[in-house]
Amino acid sequence: MGPLALRLLSLVALIAGWEWAGRARASFALPTFGQTARAAAELLRSGAFWEALGISGQSLLLGMAGAVAFGIPVGLLMGAVGPLGRYLRVYFELMIAIPTAAIIPLVILTLGITVRSSALIVFLFSAPFITLNAYGGVRDVNPRLAEMARAFSATRRQLFAKIVLPSSLPMVLAGLRYGLSRAFVGLIVAELLLSPFGIGKVIMNASSMFQYDRLFATVGLVVLVALLVLAALQRLERRLLHWRA
Questions:
Q1: How many other C-beta atoms are found inside a 10 Å radius of the C-beta of residue 110?
Q2: Which of 71, 128, 170, 204 could in theory staple to 95 by disulfide, Cβ–Cβ 3.0 to 4.6 A?
Q3: d(Cα 177, Cα 232) in Å, to the nearest integer?
């Protein structure tokens, strides 16, 4: 049995288990898969989900763009300049270790309840991972390649452009994928803890009105969008790194 068949089989088993649990009333808040699918179709048909996604997407794009623009150059610089990397690495690891949700009240007090505050939370969730992956990519460059380039009188700029950057690209792109997945988490956390708007508003409204099929449908659609975006990024990664094969 091939990998695709196994994935389809596991998906069918998940749907069947979900439907059974919903019909057996394993929890009063758990709808059946059929009810959730109908609610998802209604959200898509009415445009409510797309409208909410458009609002939330602004925060996601702003925060992720800032994380990429900040994380990749800083991570590459940390890897290229050893003392700087050893000094700054501790702070980024500390940002990962600290429960990021605890920072949200500070963000609200500083920026208020705006799209900018939500974007900043997305940035804080994703930037440390992007930065440390870029840093690790530079530190993992094969030293023999660097020695060979120096033996042929390569300048520091040529060494970085021809050896360091291509060698670190796989980890940089992997950091982008992981940072993007964390950005989606940060987006939902921000919108649930802030005054809800966008996707968070749809989730909170469905929860307060006990529309659990609509709640599960909204979460499922967000997961599906995240999977599609990550799959597109992975496809781009394979194209850029075709030389590794």
A1: 10
A2: 128
A3: 10
Dihedral pair phi/psi, residue 163, rounded to 5°: -115, -60
pTM: 0.82
Contacts of 221 (CB under 8 A, 6+ apart): 40, 43, 44, 49
Question: Which residues are CB-contacts of 56 (< 8 A; sequence separation ≥ 6)?
Answer: 118, 187, 191, 197, 198, 199, 200
Place of tokens 């605890």: 102
In degrees, to the nearest 5, what angle opens at C-alpha 188 toward C-alphas 46 and 235? 85
H/E stretch holding 214: helix 212-240
Structure tokens at 167: 């060698």
d(CA 56, CA 141): 38
**One-letter amino acid identity for 212?**
Y
**Considering only CA atoms, which of 189, 179, 232, 191 is closest in space to residue 70?**
179
85, 89, 90, 91 alpha-carbon torsion, rounded to 10°: 110
Q: What is the pLDDT of residues 12-50, one digit of tens each?
A: 888 888 788 878 876 777 888 888 889 989 989 988 888
List Cα–Cα distances, 220 to 36, 92, 115, 212, in angstroms: 9, 31, 23, 12
Burial profile 41-77: b = 16 or more Cβ within 10 angstroms, e = fewer: eebeeeebbeebbebbeebbebbbebbbeebbebbbb
